[in-house]
Amino acid sequence: MRTLGRIAAALAAAVAGAALGAARPSGPAAAELAMRDGGRWTTWWRPGASPAGTKGVAPLAERIAWRAAAAGMEWGELEMSGGGEAWRTRLIVVRLDPRQVALELAPAFDQGGRWTVSDADTEAVLALDAGQFRGALPWGWVVSGGREILPPEQAPLAGAVVVDSAGDVRVVAPAGVAAERARGGAREAFQSYPMLLQDGVVPLALREPGHGVVVGHRDARLALGTLSDGRVIFALTRFDALGEALGRVPFGLTSAEMAAVMEGLGCRQALLLDGGISGQLMLRAGDGSPRAWRGTRSVPLGLVGRPRR
Questions:
Q1: Which range of residues forms the domain containing residue 146?
Q2: How many domains does the chain fold into?
Q3: Pairing assessment for the beta strands 169-172 and 159-164 based on DSSP bridges
Q4: Splitting the chain (309 residues) into consecutive groups of 10 residues, what average pLDDT does each group show?
């Protein structure tokens, strides 16, 4: 981690300078987000606006060339550009149907261990890190296989991901976590923060300073969201200026920008997961071959998708 930190520090000044110079000669202002659209950059989001200005439009999802993955999954990538160190950002997206792919947690911490996507077995068609972490433990609620391992915690922006007994996936707003626990029926559940979208609205704390969030902080991001038809979106960002070898460098979007990404993918509910050097994702293509974007740090809790029997 120290080596990666030195690399990131050494690159920061050069990236910032390049972003002010030749990054997008005819592109949008630094506070905006653009996507590569053929041979040009197209602005799709400005601060304070919905990605397309109209709810129900998913400009990023419409531009992705979706590729077949395992049954019930498809994936794709987009080149994006934003301000400062986000001047070259790659977005990797998985769209999953929980009627065909069952999601379950990998609670390595429960056995005193740690986890990476490399630990996913050959049956797994998807793997990523889940939630946020405090030392050796996940932060907040964890239910695995119907067994509660850790109770919920309370924080203004801490929502939860719940997989019920039918396999349906919901993002639960912070105010609803206690009631969700009391109702029972969660087969898998974990908390994370902050909420990015709640009924299509970006929380004020992500948009304006002074509400407990450093709104200008940039990092590599990982998020989970849900679509109106029940499908689940997983989105990971990677630094894209120097190739995949340095994709793990923790440069990227602000939380508000990641909220815009999730809305641009069609989500109405979305929750940020642990990104930075922990952010990692593995999927299996249609031919069964794995495609992985690895993190630099192991984590106590993973989320794995397997073909539904």
A1: 2-307
A2: 1
A3: antiparallel
A4: 48 47 44 90 85 69 96 97 93 98 98 97 97 94 98 96 97 97 97 97 92 91 97 97 78 95 97 96 94 95 95
